[in-house]
Amino acid sequence: GAGVSQSPRYKVAKRGQDVALRCDPISGHVSLFWYQQALGQGPEFLTYFQNEAQLDKSGLPSDRFFAERPEGSVSTLKIQRTQQEDSAVYLCASSLKVETSSGNEQFFGPGTRLTVL
Amino acid sequence: RKEVEQDPGPFNVPEGATVAFNCTYSNSASQSFFWYRQDCRKEPKLLMSVYSSGNEDGRFTAQLNRASQYISLLIRDSKLSDSATYLCAVTTGGFKTIFGAGTRLFVKA
């Protein structure tokens, strides 16, 4: 079956532009995560959804970052007034169940590589 | 201090070597532990979950030491195809997953 998909795969934005990144999780997966990965670093947790509810947004770097999952499936990460420090790969992951425990694997999408000029 | 810290690497080893990665975590309430593999410009993929009793999958062995708050990954008989970045990940509060910075492994012929 299809895995997690993300679009666009690459995005170049001018500083100050708004961008929207899309994630299509695996069908039926309850949990959805967004991560930011800078070059040479591990993924950094941004936010978590359980169905349509955003249960944790503690990792969002600033109020310019906003995520939604209105119908409990597709999710969008929006970044307003992009800055150069926002340049990174944005990864989406989904998992079948609620809790991230052994046996409840997170499946990652290919990521969106954002470059802010 | 970062919540999850890994050996800085990179590790350069010949084929057939045994290599060990260590990872420490700071939150004693952490519940679940994982090793992920990430190839260059690809997404992370789960390699192994790490159980308290330790677990083995072929050439890979993972260990957890809750008292000392570290996890380890041992790769025996390294293959060229094992070259990748290895990320440890720790989950707290049921879902919030914190990744280490990763350790890069180069296996050479």
Write structural notes for this entry:
The complex is a heterodimer of chains A (117) and B (109). With 117 residues, chain A is mainly β. Chain A contains no helices and 11 strands. In chain A, a hairpin with a 6-residue loop joins β4 and β5. The N and C termini of chain A lie far apart (37 Å). In chain A, 35% of the residues are buried. The mean pLDDT of chain B is 93. In chain B, the strands form 2 sheets. In chain B, strands 2, 4, 5, 9, 10 and 11 form a 6-stranded mixed β-sheet that branches. A 5-stranded antiparallel β-sheet of chain B has the order 1-3-8-7-6, with no helix packed on it. Chain B contains no helices and 11 strands. The chains are: A mainly beta (117), B mainly beta (109). Chains A and B meet through β4 and β5 of A and β5, β9 and β10 of B.
Features:
heterodimer; A: 117 residues; mainly beta; seven-stranded mixed sheet; four-stranded antiparallel sheet; globular; B: 109 residues; six-stranded mixed sheet; five-stranded antiparallel sheet
Task: Give a brief outline of the structure.
Chain A is mainly beta and 117 residues long. Chain A contains no helices and eleven strands. In chain A, 35% of the residues are buried.
Walk me through the topology:
The complex is a heterodimer of chains A (117) and B (109).
Chain A: E1 5-7, E2 10-13, E3 19-24, E4 31-37, E5 44-50, E6 53-56, E7 65-68, E8 75-79, E9 88-95, E10 107-108, E11 112-116
Parallel strand pairs in A: 2-11
Antiparallel strand pairs in A: 1-3, 3-8, 4-5, 4-9, 5-6, 7-8, 9-10, 9-11
Chain B: E1 4-6, E2 11-14, E3 19-25, E4 32-38, E5 45-50, E6 55-57, E7 60-65, E8 70-75, E9 84-92, E10 96-99, E11 103-108
Parallel strand pairs in B: 2-11
Antiparallel strand pairs in B: 1-3, 3-8, 4-5, 4-9, 6-7, 7-8, 9-10, 9-11
Number of helices of chain B: 0
**Helix segment count of chain A?**
0
Biggest sheet layout of chain B:
6 strands, mixed
From the N-terminal CA to the C-terminal CA of chain B, the straight-line distance is 37 Å
Dominant shape of chain B: globular
Strand fraction of chain B: over 45%
Terminal CA distance of chain A reads 37 Å
